[in-house]
């Protein structure tokens, strides 16, 4: 039986991944901060799901947790979030630094600590980046910067792991309707609903299916990066400011 270690399983893409992999006969070790949700997921998924309470911003605990794990075939670095989309000149610094702790430092600490384990199993690493890694937008510089780090970390890690058989993939979704925008907007469900209204956005299950597909490809095949958007999302042009003469 294969084992996946998935971070951030208490909602959204992480939760959908836990369900998808357990449903396909994998053992899943899933982390999250919210005890009640972990408990509910454990009840739903049964003995092949092991819940681990973990805050990815607590780097020392992340390292300790990763050191004690049994052999892992797949690491899904899913945990992460975005802070409010305020222009940096108007934004509070503390939430931004906290987001970098989770989205960047926690991910690096976990991956580094699990590498000997994954090299032994010739496993796979799937990192959740974002379209924001490649396309800037107003109010997104911190989140986009963190996700650009994840993308480039993933590609560089492929070079480091050359010859080990370990596969590494950056998954880069656009609009997925989860708690992502509720969290980004400080708990404002109505503004999240408005953001996704009429878009027919991607679902957490869409991304979980993609991750499952990537993870179960033949071992000689590596998807380096995979960008996904709902059909109704694409790109805007450059913003041009023309000061009045
Ligand atoms: C977030 C992607 O398109 O919702 O990772 O800003 S988008």
Record keyword descriptors for this entry.
alpha/beta; 245 residues; single chain; Rossmann fold; globular; 8 helices; 43% helix; 7-stranded parallel beta sheet; binds 2-hydroxyethylsulfonic acid
Task: Describe the protein in words.
The structure is a single chain. By secondary structure, the protein is of the alpha/beta class. The chain has a single domain (3-228), classed as NAD(P)-binding Rossmann-like Domain (Rossmann fold). It has eight helices and seven strands, in the order βαβαβαβαβαβαααβ. The protein has a seven-stranded parallel β-sheet with strand order 3-2-1-4-5-6-7, sandwiched between helices. α1 links the parallel β1 (3-6) and β2 (27-32). α4 runs parallel beside α5 (141-160). The protein is globular and about 65 Å long. The termini are far apart. 40% of the residues are buried. The mean pLDDT is 97. 2-hydroxyethylsulfonic acid binds next to loops.
In short:
About 45% of the residues lie in helices and about 15% in strands.
Question: What does the secondary structure layout of this molecule look like, with pairings?
Answer:
Elements lengths: L2 E4 L5 H12 L3 E6 L2 H11 L3 E5 L5 H9 L6 E4 L15 H29 L2 E5 L12 H20 L6 E7 L6 H5 L4 H8 L7 H12 L9 E4 L17
Parallel strand pairs: 1-2, 1-4, 2-3, 4-5, 5-6, 6-7
The chain binds 2-hydroxyethylsulfonic acid.
The site of 2-hydroxyethylsulfonic acid has 5 residues, from loops.
């Amino acid at each position: 039986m294969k084992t996946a270690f998935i971070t951030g399983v208490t909602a959204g893409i992480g939760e959908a991944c836990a369900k998808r992999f357990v449903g396909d006969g994998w053992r899943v070790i899933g982390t999250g901060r919210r005890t009640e949700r972990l408990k509910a997921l454990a009840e739903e998924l049964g003995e092949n799901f092991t819940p681990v309470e973990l805050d990815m911003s607590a780097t020392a605990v992340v390292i300790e947790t990763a050191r004690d794990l049994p052999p892992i075939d797949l690491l899904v670095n899913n945990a992460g979030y975005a802070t409010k989309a305020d222009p940096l000149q108007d934004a509070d610094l503390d939430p931004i630094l906290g987001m970098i702790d989770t989205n960047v430092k926690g991910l690096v600490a976990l991956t580094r600590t699990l590498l000997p384990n994954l090299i032994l199993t010739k496993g796979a690493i799937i990192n959740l980046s974002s379209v924001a890694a490649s396309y800037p937008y107003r109010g997104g510089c911190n989140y986009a910067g963190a996700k650009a780090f994840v993308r480039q970390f993933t590609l560089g890690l492929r070079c480091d792991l050359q010859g080990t058989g370990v596969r590494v993939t950056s998954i880069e979704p656009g609009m997925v309707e989860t708690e992502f925008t509720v969290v980004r907007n400080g708990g404002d469900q109505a503004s999240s609903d408005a953001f996704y209204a009429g878009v027919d956005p991607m679902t957490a299950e869409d991304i979980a299916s993609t991750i499952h597909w990537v993870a179960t490809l033949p071992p000689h095949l590596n998807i380096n990066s995979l960008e996904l958007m709902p059909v109704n999302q694409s790109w805007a042009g450059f913003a041009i400011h023309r000061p009045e003469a």
